[in-house]
Amino acid sequence: MAIAKAERLMNLALCLLGTRRPLSKRELRESIEAYLEAGSDDSFNRMFERDKDDLRELGLVIATVENLEGETGYLARRDSNRLPAITLDAEEAAALGLAAKVWQQARLAGAASGALQKLRAAGMPEAADSYEAHHSALEPRIPVHEAAFEPLMLACRDRRPVVFDYRKANAARPGQRHVEPWTLECWRGHWYLAGWDRDRGAERVFRLSRITGRVRSRAGSFTAPVPDVVTVRETVETWAGETATRSARIRLRTGCGYPLRSRAQSIRELGEGWDELEIPYGHGLDAWLVEFGPDVVVLEPADLRADVVERLRAVAKG
Length: 318
What we know:
Blueprint: H1 2-18, E1 23-24, H2 25-31, H3 33-36, H4 41-57, E2 63-66, E3 72-75, H5 90-102, H6 109-121, H7 130-134, H8 149-158, E4 162-166, E5 175-187, E6 190-197, E7 202-207, E8 211-217, H9 229-240, E9 244-253, H10 258-263, E10 266-271, E11 274-282, H11 285-290, E12 296-300, H12 302-317
Antiparallel strand pairs: 1-3, 2-3, 4-5, 4-8, 5-6, 6-7, 9-11, 9-12, 10-11
Helix pairs in contact: 1-4, 5-6
């Protein structure tokens, strides 16, 4: 049904943009196959009015003209529907070229590449490829493996509430969450959703890899105000453990855990294949340490050690 409507809207837009004179409802009905298949005049009229409103909502300027016989006609003048010339400097073009490369592993790859080709055809400077010329050995990638990414991205864009099953790191079974999605953030190779949890009446962050099953959209509008982008990103970083409020001491197996070593405030060799590290301790550190499995042992503080042990037990229970 969605594909059929999109095709019908496209055909109507092409008719209105391609004509040099206003077309009446009768002429449009005879030109578009989907309208010919309408069961009655009333059915066609309702379909046409909805389609016309949808095109206007999408930004198409449709003029209504009455001819000498009093018949109403429609057309979309090209001068009224032409975008202004795109002007980008070399740095802006390079940023767009780099952004298109970043999304090659996501389903956005086709849209990003197509948009870049259209911009080049419109005269975008070739400097967009300067990054590739100088850094071909190092190419950025944002991995997107979670099935929840695309429906959540669309829900964030369209401001639509969603429902999904979410398994917390220390829970044996997933629980249902009703969320007003704000934005998606990639941090340390993992995607996070920031939004308003309706059941808890508070702002929450969810790791996409812990969403189980299908993300389902819900009708209705948001009930909580959406904060600005900067605030949301800070929230994601805080919940994911970026903001440290104190330090923790851990034992780390020699030759392992290089991401932890890169953040360490101090490293001391213990011998027998172990090192002792002092690392920043913030919200989410327990979930990160669990990922290193038997290569990490938490020494202090006690609450961090208890959280890691609880998460490991939950994983062991399945």
